[in-house]
Structures are given as structure tokens and as C-alpha cells.
Amino acid sequence: MKSQFTQVYVAVIVIFLVGVVFGQTGQEQGKQAPPMSEMGVPRQIKLLSDMTGTWKTQMKYKIDQSQPAWSEAGGEAKYEYVLDSCGIIGHYSMDLMGLPYKGMLIISYSRALAKYQSYWLDNMATAPIVDDGVRDSSGAVMFTGSEIYQGKTAYTRMTQRMPDKKTLVMEFEDSYDGKTYHRSMEILHTKQ
After folding, report:
1. Where does the pLDDT of residue 18 fall: very low under 50, low under 70, confident under 90, or very high at 90 and above?
2. Looking at the domain 43-191, which fold is it?
3. Which stretches of the chain are assigned E, i.e. beta strand?
């Protein structure tokens, strides 16, 4: 009796395992697996292809909004595709306030969020800035985000536009209340 029970028990387990491995339950029949997400180079990154290359930069910036004067600095930027053209990386260099300044910008596109994403890091602030961006019908991309600046949350907007294939303009605005924005910087890029 005991061996007959063991045989039936083993047979039920084997049938169950075969059904799991090779078959489908009645509820699963007729259902298709969800489609695989799109992979490879996002077409949205291809739309930024004119950014790639070496650029002369001229930056105007204002650290203190209460002061009327703008400061200026010139330098160079180089943008190139990375990771089989799935993203763009830019390297900046210039003298800023008498010090050597270097920065790095990475731009990618998140299909999951349906937004561009940028990551900025430089050798002065050393704190990364991560922003989300949306491209408008003119081709301009507005990146928005926030960072901690001098102990306060600063909300940021950067609009990146190309009036022509040899000119790239980045306009920066900051706000401490998230409502009133002040122009804080502009970088004019001229392709070399």
C-alpha cells in the first residue's frame, strides 16, 4: 500500500513538472508574450548628430543676480558619440575665474521615460547635475532639474538649440522658488 501511494505520488509530481516545463495551463493558452522593448541607438539621439565635433566656446555667466555685470570666459568643447552611438559625451575646457576648468556632459535618451537625460560633472562644483529634457518642434531641447547650491535647492533649466549646423547655443536659467527664473549663463559654441 505504501509503495503504491509512493508510485502515485511520484507520478503526479512528474506529470506536474512535465506540464510546467513543456506545457501551458489553460489560462496561459492563447496569450502571447509581451513584445520586446526597442533596443539599440535611439532615433532621438540621432536627431542631435549635428552636435558632434569640436567647438570653440564663449561663455557669459552671472553668479550674483544682484550684480548687473556679466563675466566671460572662452574655451573649447568636443562632443562625440559613445557606446555605439547610444549617447553623446562632451568634454569642456577653459580658464574660469583664473582657474583651469574642465567639465563633462553626457546626453542619452530614455525610452522608458520618453525623455532625454543629461549628466553634468565638473572639476569645480564636483557635484553631478542630472536633468531630464524634452525636444520641441523647432529641435530645441529643454533640460530641467535641480541641484543644491550654497545649501539651497536651485531649480535649473537649460535650453539647447542649433540655429544652424555651425552654431550651438545653450541658455541657462536658475530659480530658488521654482517659479521665477533668472538667466544665469549662455554658452555660444562655434564649430571648428
Report:
1. very low
2. Lipocalin (2.40.128)
3. 53-61, 71-82, 87-96, 99-110, 115-122, 129-135, 141-149, 152-164, 167-175, 182-191
